[in-house]
Protein 1
Amino acid sequence: MTVSHPDYPYSFNPDACKTCSGRCCNGESGNIWVNRKEIGAIARVLSMDTDPFIQTYLRKSGYRFTIKELKSKDNYACVFFDEDRNGCVIYEARPEQCRTFPFWPYFKEHPEEAAAECPGVQCE
Ligand code: SF4
Ligand code: SF4
């Protein structure tokens, strides 16, 4: 079922995720922000205490935390992207930034960039 949002000039078809290689989880390097509440939720899903979770999986950028990425050739993948399953290993606790993709405020004014990044985006 296609998802639309009244403030956005495009809709999103989640069926595209089945044949997409997780382009929102890997590709160019970027920040995957997590707040304190999200950090706690992800650590719980992984059955880890918060401090070791932060040390193992997060990177500090300014005063915020972002999920680490793994680099291979020219590709950067979120550490929680499982290439074999083509999915997110912390899916139920994925951060807000991931939950709201591709409806990010920046894309509201740049729908063509959303479409270039995500094959599920259907511009009007
Ligand atoms: S880039 Fe779009 S189509 Fe591909 S996995 Fe992410 S949300 Fe789904
Ligand atoms: S946390 Fe999950 S949904 Fe978000 S970028 Fe990483 S693998 Fe993708």
Protein 2
Amino acid sequence: MTESNIFTQYLKKRNSLVKNKKILQSSYVPENLPHRDDKINEIVEIIAPSLERDKPSNILIIGKTGTGKTAVMNYIGKELKKADPSEESCTFIYINCEIVDTPYGILYNIANQIISDPSRKIPFTGWSVDKILSELTSYIEEKNKIFIIVLDEIDRSFQKNGDDIFYYLTSINDELKNSTVSIIGITNNTKFTDFLSTRIKSRLGEEKIIFPPYSVEQLQDILYERAKEAFEEGILSEGVIPYCAALTAQDGGDARRALDLLRMSADIAERNGDKNISEAHVKSAKNKVEMDAVAEIVRTLNMQSKMVLMSIIKNTEEGQSTMITGDVYSTYKVLCEITGTTVITQRRVADLISELDMLGIIHARVKAFGRAGRTKEIELSAPKNIADLLKSDELFKELEHYKPPKQTTLM
Ligand SMILES: Nc1ncnc2c1ncn2[C@@H]1O[C@H](COP(=O)(O)OP(=O)(O)OP(=O)(O)O)[C@@H](O)[C@H]1O
Ligand SMILES: [Mg+2]
């Protein structure tokens, strides 16, 4: 028994609704991946020959974020290891190119996962890419087997270095007689192949596998499966999972977001000291996620855009939930005057309004308005408390008590 200490009381008071927090984290790889059997089978069929030392085709896996690409490859890697525990026929190597993104870094990582002989390890820096490549090639050749190299998030390396790394890796095979290298590239950029040179495209994309976004029902199954492991029975109210799934499916079927939402709902319920997790907690979690995203966008806006946004907020706060560009501009001019900010033209303000619309903070619909020509009907789409984010900005302190007069209305 641990002696009582200053933490004891806190720990007792804290009510934990989650059996094991790790299970809801996105780094956790579950034993079972619902709705990915077909993709797993497709990949296994392609790489199975490696267990008989036959070279499998290179594979390119494409799918939007959170569609299970990394989870599936990790799972297959583990199973491959079970099929060939001493790696006699086949070695599986996984590299995340978001973490290691230079050709040197990638080759260095591959080499040091493969090379067991300490005297032949490759130094962290100092060698040329050609030297590392030739050492790696001769080591691979000596091993007389298949190497499957998974390059996750390959678009990251591509953005920085073009297709050099694919060229190096796919050309290793030209030098090999006894061993071969197969590449499995993973990307969430659906246009990735458009950027590759024809030569790399045909080499890398010998087999292309698409991971589609999950449907509402599929997200529900994934969440149910995870919830079984993570929560004691009766903790989750019935509607929680369908609600998390529905909210996430609207946003593109991303399992990571669905899990994040469930985890955050549990956190909120715990912090409130509630005994169950309900749909209200999911709603709060969703608001928090949206607010965080909006806060990030607002933080990076330039001063003029903030001023335009503030004008829209001020009008909204005065009961005008929809307005036209002219209404925004009238308020904008006054706000600039109070704060001593340079006034830009209505034309430029209209451009900034379009930008805010694209960022999803406001809605701006074009509305034909007879003689006045085309104008826009504008309303705030971000959560109401977005104003607090702006008000914390030094510049807006002086505007706290300003109330714009009622403007021309759309009615
Ligand atoms: N079919 C599934 N069953 C259970 N969990 C899943 C499934 N698909 C994805 N997940 C979980 O969702 C989260 C995101 O999945 P994963 O990391 O594989 O996405 P990804 O396609 O690699 O996304 P990204 O392109 O952003 O890297 C992980 O926690 C993963 O365990
Ligand atoms: Mg991934």
Protein 3
Amino acid sequence: MTRTAQCHCGKVSLTCEGEPDPVLMCSCEYCQRRTGAPFMIGAWFDENKVTIEGQTKTFTRSNGDQGMLVSYEFCPECGTTIWWPAPDGSALKGKISVAGGCFADANFPAPTLSIYEKHKHPWISPPEGTTGFETSFNTGD
Ligand SMILES: [Zn+2]
Ligand SMILES: [Zn+2]
């Protein structure tokens, strides 16, 4: 299956082959501020299964808990963060995460992992069967 993610203005797009693994939701305070939403969806694809079109800018931060440097790629025109690679030391090295909301697809696979639940808004209920973590599970998110 091929899916396409794009930023708010459409100048950056990512074409992704195959199924994402894992799909995770992250409720950390960084993701809340970055997205303006109470949690984000990260859909991880093998980096060689993703074709990126359009120019991005990079914002790098430490993920705090594990000291990994995570570099977020965002559209300089509209500001949407659209993808980020697994940082050095991540359990998902070799994959990139695509912002799940950028697919704007209500049938997109649901998350199976929920990280940083210590910051999860109490009214949010991850899907049944989702594995929850108080902080990270070594992804770099
Ligand atoms: Zn854009
Ligand atoms: Zn996060």
Protein 4
Amino acid sequence: MKRAAAAEERLCLGSHLSVAGGAHRAVEEAIALGLASLQIFTKNASRWVQRAMREDEVAQFRAARARWGEHAVVSHESYLFYLASADGALRKRSRAAFIDELERAEQLGLDAVVTHPGAHMGSGPEKGIDRFAAELRAVFDAVPFVRTRVLIECTAGQGTVLGRSFAELAGILAAVACPARLGVCLDTCHLFAAGYDLRRAAGYEAAMRELEREIGAREVRCWHLNDSRGALGSHLDRHEHIGKGQIGASGFRALLADARFDGIPKILETPKENDMDRVNLRALRRLARPARSASPRR
Ligand SMILES: [Zn+2]
């Protein structure tokens, strides 16, 4: 029993769950699903300005989390990713929204806010990264660091978005130059769509060598586990159920066995209908079990 619990902690599977009815509801669902990590939105994803959180909401969330066992919770920044934009007014609104997000996350005691690095909108990755870094530093100046890191998520590389390679993520981390408050989040679907072939162990190992060279696996503080509807290098950001997409079930085996990511949240962002979280979690747990083929048959 104890060994099973330790294995679950190492695996650290989670999901992005709804906060309808309050953030504590997501924690209650995480408990029901047997999760060891969780991702939420701290606000309505489609609005710039939100009402502040009430103290009783925060208290309810913290109480639910204490019942759960203080597992890692991250939020996903609400796709207002204009921090790298050339449009100054848009950048300013985006900065204010990000400050609000980080304040909420600190208030809830979240471990991290995951964000996409945004798009350079045609002015080139270098200028885009410079703008993003300056804005993120301004966000950091506005919100004192208590607990919540900002994790830059890799992208599928569609259009002019930043973060399509480990080298580009490394460039972003270096430009922000605030390692104590930063990290990265890797999304299997985005990596695959950006051209990293995760279908076989050899492709996974090659990608991880590049990761170690450019960034270091220690900087990976969250994974998003999604299969990919789009082909390798297609730059299509379309999440698919585990094992049902172009990466395929065995593509996840090497990652789940990689001890460098023990205890690092591995969060499903796959479609939720028909109780699919339970199906995807079962698939991942099965793939995480060590192969028994080496033992002789009797
Ligand atoms: Zn993701």
